[in-house]
Amino acid sequence: MKFKFCTHDPYVLPEGNYHAQFSLVAEPVSNTKCEAPLRLTLDVLYPLPDNLPRKVAKTYCTDCDKNNDLINHLSSALQAEVEALLDEHEMLDAKKLIGRRVDITVEHVQTDGYDKPFVKLAGMFPAGTFKLKE
User: Fold this and answer.
1) Is 42 exposed, middle or buried (0-12, 13-18, 19+ CB in 10 A)?
2) Cα separation, 107 vs 23, whole angstroms
3) What is the pTM of this model?
4) 23: nearest Cα among 11, 34, 33
5) Which of 18, 68, 78 is nearest to 48 (CA)?
6) Mean pLDDT of 96-117
7) What angle do CA 74, 76, 80 make, to 5 degrees?
8) Phi and psi (nearest 5°) for 62?
9) Does the pLDDT value for residue 108 go beyond 80?
């Protein structure tokens, strides 16, 4: 098997708007302040800085009293599709998100103790919201 040996950090991304696609659903490895964390990773489709693969990830809390970010992002981005993703118990199977396209906004947040800014997934919108060139 051959593969491209990438030396860039795929999670470094300039601020801006992007077309993206859900690519991974996982439990985060880091310690979070909720009982049921969920990490969603999106592949950036375009525009791609330097034509190199880029990703954005965010850890959400799925606890009923702490899941506002998750609900807001998914409801905004997948408006008509959210109900179709729910089962008969009103539970969402996060793996059904994989492959779905959305538009995202990325912001940088400078935090103490780090020499480069944190790349923040600031917003999710329906695919095609942003008119971007490939």
Assistant:
1) buried
2) 20
3) 0.84
4) 11
5) 18
6) 90
7) 85
8) -100, 0
9) yes
Contact criterion met (CB below 8 Å) for 8 and 101: no
| Structure tokens belonging to residue 25 | 């659903």
Place of tokens 């959400």: 60
Backbone φ and ψ for 90, nearest 5 degrees, come out as 65, 30
For tokens 């702490």, the residue is 66
Q: Two tokens at 4?
A: 């491209």
Residue written as token pair 């779905």: 100
Phi and psi (nearest 5°) for 38? -140, 130
List phi, psi (to 5°) of 104: -130, 155
CA angle 91, 96, 6 (to 5 degrees): 135
